[in-house]
Structures are given as C-alpha cells and as structure tokens.
Amino acid sequence: MKIESELLRGAGPLAVLKLLERSEMYGYQLVEALSRRTDGVLALGQSTLYPLLYNLEAKGLIEASWQTTESGRDRKYYRLTSSGRKRLATDTKQWQALLRAMSSLGLGAAPAEVRP
Amino acid sequence: MNAETRARASLLVRILTTPVGPPIFPSFTRGAGPRQVIAAAALPTPEMEVVTQTVRKTRLWRRERAEVARELCSHFAEGAALGRSGEELIREFGDPARAAALIRRAKIRGRPLPWRAWRRFCQGIGTLVLLCIALYAVLALRYYRATPVISRDYIAELNAPIAAVPLNDRAEPVYRRAVEALPPHPAGLFVGGDLIRPENPWWPDVKDYLAQSRESLELARLGAAKPALGAELMSASEPKGSARSVLDAAWGRSYGQLRTLSWLLVEDAYRAAEESDGATAIANLSALLRLGDHAREAPFLVNDSIGFAMFGLAIRATGTILSTRPEILSNEGLVELAHRLSAAGGGPFTFRTSGERALFLDIVQRIYSDDGNGGGHLSGSGTKELWAESGAFGEPLGRSALAPIDCALLPGRREVIGEYDRLVAAACEQASKPLFARTEDPDNFSMESMGSYKDHGMVGTYATVGAMIPDFGAMSVGAERLTQRRDAVLVAIALELYRRAHGSYPDSLEALTPKYLPGIPIDRFDGKPIKYKLAEGRPLLYSVGVDGVDDGGRPPPGGRDPSKWFSPARLREARRSPAVAAQIGLGGDWILLRMNR
C-alpha cells in the first residue's frame, strides 16, 4: 500500500531509530527490515533511505562505522547514539499518543506486536 | 589512478594526481576518489553507472562523494550477494537525480558549522543582491517611463492681462523709439552706469549728451504717461520653451530699455534743477516714478526690483533737490510730487511672489509625472531639465546610474509644492513685517531648503524647492529702506510747504499733521515716529538705524552703514563682540535727509 509522503516523513526516521534500538545494522539490512516487518508499508527506496540515514547522522542521533565482513565486503553499520535513544523514547511516546487519538476516532486498532 | 581512469579524468584532476598535485591541494589526493572507489567495487556496468551518476550529481566534496560511492557500492554488492538481479536493485534504488539531491542536502547538514554559516551568509547576500536588483529594476522602470504632462501654460496666463491692454495704451513701443533715438555715447562717457552728479568732472559731457537726447526724453515722458507698459511676455518669433526661458527673453527685450530711460530721466532732472527748471525736474521725476510702475507690470521679483530701483532714483533725486534747490519747485509741483511718491508702487513697497510661484509650478509640471490628483514623482526626462534650469550642481542627476533610487527617495510632486508654499509663506510673513518687528532673516527659509540640498551634495531632499525658492531677505530689507526714504522725502516736502506758509520750520512733526502730512511716518527700525530735529535751524530727518539707539542724528564713525538690517540674533552677538559690532555699523543713526536751506 502506497503511503502519502507527508505521512511517511515523520514515520521513516522513527522507524529507523526503532530498528537500530536493539542492534546496529547496515543500509541494505535496514531496507530489507523496514519492508519485511511492515509488510511493505515502509518500503523506503534506497534513494530515500540513505539520505534519511545521513540526516540522522548529521543530527547526531546515529553514528556509523565501516566493518569488513568475513567475505571481504565492506559494510557501513549504523547504531544509536545516546541522543538517538532519547529521541526514540520521546518520539515513541508521541506516536503512541497519536495512535490512541486516532483509534478513539475509529481510525485504527492499538499498535501491533513487534515482529522479530 | 589507472591508465583508463586517468584518460577519462579532467585536466585538473590529471594535474593534481601528478607530483605537483599535493603541494597545490593536499586534501585532494588524500585517499581514494569516488571513481577509484567505484572502480574498485567491480560492480556490473548498469549498477556502476547508477552509482556513478548518483555520486556525480551530488556535487559534494571529493571526500564526501567517495564516502557515498563506497556505501552505495556496498549496498548493490549486498543485494547481488543475496541473489537479487541488477534490474531489481536499480529499480528499488529509485531516481538517481532525486537520490543525489536528497543525499546532497543531508550531507551538507553534516558539514562543519562555520562552513554552513558561511554558506547561509553567502545565500543571504545573494538574495539581498537579487532583491536589490529587482528593486532597482522596478524603480528604474518607474523613473524612466514617467512622462511629465505639461497641462498649463503659465506664461500665457500671466501674459493675458498684458495682452489685453489696447495698443494705444502701451508705453513699450514709445520707450523703444526713445531708446532708438538716443545718440551714441561719447567715448569715455557711459550714460546708464553710476549717476553722474553736477559736481562730477564728467558733468559737462553729460549735459551735452542730454541736450542731444531731447527727443528721447520727450518720448520717455510721453511713454510714462501711458496707462501700462504693454510688454508681452511671449514673442511669436521666439521658440516656446519653459516659462523661465521665455521670461529671460522677455526681460532682455524690455527692461534694458527701461533702465536706460530711467537714468536719462534722473540725470536730466539734476540738470533741470541746476538750471532752475523746476517744471522739467518734476516732470522727469514723475515720469521716473511711472517708469517704475511700468517695470512692475509682470508680478515677478526681478520686475519689482527694477521698479523699486527706479523709485529709489526718483526718491533720492527729489530729496537732493529739496535739500539743495527747493526754491525751484512750486507748491503745486511739491504737492504733485508728494502724491506721485505716495502712489508709486500702489502704496507700500512690497514684493510679489505669484510670478515666481508660476515659474516654480511650470518647472514642476515639466519634471514630475502627473497622476491626475496633484501627485506624481520625478521623471528621467524631467530631472535633466531640472538641472538645466537650475544651473547644474556637478553631475546632472539624470545621468547618474543611481538616479532612479535617488528620485524614489525624494519627495513627490504634492509634497514639493506644499514645501515650497510653506517656505514662501514663512518668508513672506517675515518679509511683510517692518524691520523693527522682524525676528529672523527671511533668507533663512530659502536657506532651510538650500541647506538640505547642499548637505546631501547633488541631491537634496527638496532639491526642486531649493533651486527655485527666491531669496527674500535682501529684497525685503531694500523695500523697507526704500519705504523709509520715501517717508522721509514726504516729510521733507511737508516741511518745505510748512516753511513757505509760516516762515520757519516747525519744532515738531506734529505741526505738519493733518494739513501737510496725513500722519507721521514711523522709524522702521524702532516703530516709533521718524526722528526730526532742527540743527542750526535746518531740519534733519533720521532713523535710529540697526542698533535701535537714538544717537541724536549722529552717523556712525568710519562710514559704516547703519541702515543695513541684521537679525536680532546677530545684533546680540554684536553687542557681545566689538569686532562684530564694527562689521555691522552699530553706534550711529541713519541720516535720511538734511535740509540745507
């Protein structure tokens, strides 16, 4: 389902921060995870994801480092900073409040369970 | 850099990758560039093209482009390792141009703060420059496209009453014949410059010339008897231009004749007095007064000045003859002279400003646009005319590239006219007061606008006004002094008539009223009655002069002029400073007339 870009604009960064909450991930991995875990709703193209990552990095919410895999490929891994964790916590509360408000209007159910 | 890559690189890149590169631009050669990174990733050509295109379009710094290239190559490599096809990966990647724009924006946000601040500053300056250019374009359009509308012919309006004078009632043709009939001046004798009195060594030559100029003198007296001058302001043979240019031509045509004839009449009056020909002296003095009235036909300051100068000649000559040869003047002649003097100028000597206002409005309509409601602004074509009319002050405004901006800041048509009227009204209000009641120099009002004009260099706030407003100060003081002299001569006539009736002069001027004098004129320097005393049995008429102190008819030492008016502020300064006092003639009275018989 194609989501309006205006709605995605706030969801995309929060979704990335949430994915990075548990562990660091690299770009391609993030693309796959966003698509798979949201049934394609948050299927951001690479032309959208990488600028998003660079924005989060410029804001100091995530940091990156290059690592070489066993197969010899270079990967740039992203992880949350302490500022990113704080922002994630704040934005999560706001989103939950928003979802409750929308649900009270009959616009959706409670948030789904987190998929691995 | 391998041979193939080097062959495709730009000249600058090739130079910087030689041994001279690092000293020139050290950071350029530090680390691999984006092309090397992409080449090293060994992606299939389509994916490599997408990455190359995206990275190039970001227009980021070399280091940043290499970083982005490395990450995008890693992304495609991951996809390929997971069995995704190149087409799939390229399709999911999206539009390279859009990606590049988003990546660029994001990467710039991550640059150092000083760099971002400098960028914002440059963007701000650029925006400001563009705004200024746009504003200038608008102002220039407004300025150069504005066209003045000449809606009123002010000269025709001023000329209408003159043109209505019947031809037979016009003195101007008679005066012209009088001047044409004049014989040539003898070598070394200039009739028309400074007056030559009987005591002057040139006097015999003057008398000879006057004897040859009988016809001209008769014609001058004949012309003076006409009701009006009838000198039209417009000449059909001359091109129509601005009001000022037309008037300059008119003044050149007519008023030189009047000046010549006035000098002729007054010199002949002195001759007549010397030869005890009182009737001719009175006829000449009466004609001279009428000449002054004729000169004032058009309501301009220069006309008033010329007319008052002629009145002044007649008044001085009358006073001189009264004090030296009163016996040549009959009682009837004295009464006639008194009436003529009282009537000259229509009563009090005052300057008129309606003509100058018409000139000013004519200039305004030639340089300002007209919105139909009395408003408008300076126009490009109009400002060039302004400087041509006012006598250029440096670079004419119209040629300056800043003219549209300067003129946008200047007051509009309505404001300029309002300011002119305000200043002229204020100056006239001061100029209409007798000298003792004036609180400041009327010239201050013209200087107020002129000061603003000069302070701003070429363009003053009210440059139009400053260029056109007349200087009232000296003219109005001159009119007051002329009034004082006339009053003194009228008193002298009354004294002479009294003496003839009673055998001696009165002890006070009250004895003259009302039979010989309607009222005692005031001293225009203190507002009290004009001063009169008998010195050795002979009347002395005087004014207290500029210092306002009655010195009993004693003139100031050193030949200083006590009749020259100064503002109260200047007088206070003079009372504190002897040096200033010496400059302005304090310490004596203004002797108006001393009867010697």
SSE map:
The complex is a heterodimer of chains A (116) and B (597).
Chain A: H1 5-19, E1 25-26, H2 27-37, H3 46-58, E2 62-68, E3 74-80, H4 82-104
Antiparallel strand pairs in A: 1-3, 2-3
Helix pairs in contact in A: 2-3
Chain B: H1 3-8, H2 11-16, H3 21-24, H4 34-41, H5 45-58, H6 62-81, H7 86-93, H8 96-109, H9 113-145, H10 154-163, H11 172-180, H12 203-212, H13 214-224, H14 243-274, H15 278-295, H16 301-324, H17 331-343, H18 354-367, H19 380-390, H20 403-409, H21 413-431, H22 443-455, H23 463-468, H24 473-502, E1 531-535, E2 538-543, H25 568-576, H26 578-583, E3 590-594
Antiparallel strand pairs in B: 1-2, 2-3
Helix pairs in contact in B: 4-5, 4-6, 5-6, 5-8, 9-20, 11-13, 11-14, 13-14, 13-15, 14-15, 14-16, 15-16, 15-17, 16-24, 17-24, 21-22
Structural description of this entry:
The complex is a heterodimer of chains A (116) and B (597). Helix content of chain A is 53%, strand content 14%. Chain A is an alpha+beta fold and 116 residues long. A three-stranded antiparallel sheet of chain A has the order 1-3-2. Chain A is globular, with a radius of gyration of 15 Å. The two termini of chain A are 22 Å apart. With 597 residues, chain B is mostly helical. Chain B has a three-stranded antiparallel sheet with strand order 1-2-3. In chain B, β1 and β2 form a beta hairpin. The longest helix of chain B is centred in the N-terminal third of the chain and has 33 residues. The termini of chain B are far apart. Chains A and B meet through α2, α3 and β3 of A and α6 and α8 of B.
